[in-house]
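thoughts on these tokens:
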Amino acid sequence: MAHSIAVSIIIPVRNSEKYLSSCLFSAVSQDFLLPYEVIIINNGSTDNSREIIDKYAKKYKFVRQIITDGLSVGFARKRGIEEAKGQYICFLDSDDMYKLSFVKKMYETITANNVDIVNCSYVKINPNGRISRNVLARKRSLDCIHGVRSLLRDFNIRGYMPMKMYRADLIKNAKLPISSNLIMFEDFLINFALYSKASKTKTITEPLYFYRRTNESATTNLSSNRTDLHLKCFAAVRFLAEQTGDKAVIDEFFKRGFRYWLSIFADVFLSIKVNERPFFVEL
């Protein structure tokens, strides 16, 4: 049966009142002529987020609010995926914004090139208000192994689920590696699983997403606990690579992924207190 809705936008929300209005405005104001829907997962908010969402849901018929209670972002997104009716799915974090042409240009690219995933460049808004552009290199449509390679090479850019559009049947049929123990790397793990299954992927160089950096990054706020998360993520990605049964994917993981995490562990070891280092020696 043909899809009547072209695109589903999924927005997990938890106590996001500060930036939520600008986020939702960017979602409902898209310069896109085909039918699309906005699914807002209100994930146990205790601030004024619900009132803001109610306002948009009342005004726009294509906006739906689903109320959940304290799920991780990954599980909140999963709930949105289950509810999505669109042929393609994309995600928006509640403190970020889309450029008004995001859906149109992502949709045109994913359909015109017959790819499973399209990834765009983005603009980063730092806590001090400084703005920087993060532009990805333009590439031809990539097959599975080259898509995985690009993901491993640009971990900190291509790993995010926002900034992408996915073919709905790819993401709905995939067994997504969502775990409450690996929140820090949830996006990357899910993307690794999806890129490993994708026939083709493509990149847009134009920044179409506004990413608001409100917290310190995982690699600048390091501790033994975060290192434990890195180790768990490394093990999880290795498992996912081996589960594909594709020697090229497995080799690519050890060639590029292992080198990335080794550099992270070295940075962590040098940054922690001397009396905490036995934790790493035991590893």
The chain has two domains: 7-212, 224-282.
